[in-house]
Design a protein that fits this description.
Distance between the termini of chain A: 37 Å
Structural class of chain A: mainly beta
Order of helices and strands of chain A: EEEEEEEEEEE
Oligomer: heterodimer
Number of helices of chain A: 0
Helix content of chain A: under 10%
Radius of gyration of chain B: 13 Å
Helix content of chain B: under 10%
Strand content of chain B: over 45%
Largest interface: A-B, 26 and 22 residues
Largest sheet of chain B: 6 strands, mixed
Number of strands of chain B: 12
Shape of chain B: globular
Largest sheet of chain A: 7 strands, mixed
Amino acid sequence: GAVVSQHPSWVICKSGTSVKIECRSLDFQATTMFWYRQFPKQSLMLMATSNEGSKATYEQGVEKDKFLINHASLTLSTLTVTSAHPEDSSFYICSVPGQSSYEQYFGPGTRLTVT
Amino acid sequence: AQSVTQPDIHITVSEGASLELRCNYSYGATPYLFWYVQSPGQGLQLLLKYFSGDTLVQGIKGFEAEFKRSQSSFNLRKPSVHWSDAAEYFCAVGAIGNQFYFGTGTSLTVIP
């Protein structure tokens, strides 16, 4: 399966600042990557689909101006949380589709805490 | 509409006892089913998956799951639980276009 990394694994930022999270596919190229958010004791919720060479597709209720996604290359997608607020504190996980169109490989996640 | 239900929010078992975590799905076509495990503060680790064929699927760490189409279920089992199995378990359905639908998770506590 694919190896997916995320950086940083943990970040603390002050309210009002922006934070960038990176997702890398280490062993194969991915034209699509997915970003999920997981609040404590809850399940993963898909936020957006990152598309290389085109705009990201956001799920209903996700603010595209707040969560900026850039699919810079076939191995890198970034999620920038702009003007972060404490309610944005969450665990953010990215995934890369596998060879089967029904399979995904998940990154280790990034814990964001906004103070 | 696609959905995944994990009826048990939290389960406690004794070490060495058997385990069954329930998962029910709603999906219009042939489902592609997954079980993941998540330790605190960690990402998701794939335990096993079902795409087709034998309805009893073997996974890592001694886990297995059985797909029952008539019951729309994909329950996860382990004959003897170890303390290291304590974690959060997620059932998921994979749909066309790489859409994933996760259950709400079951938290497993293992007591000595």
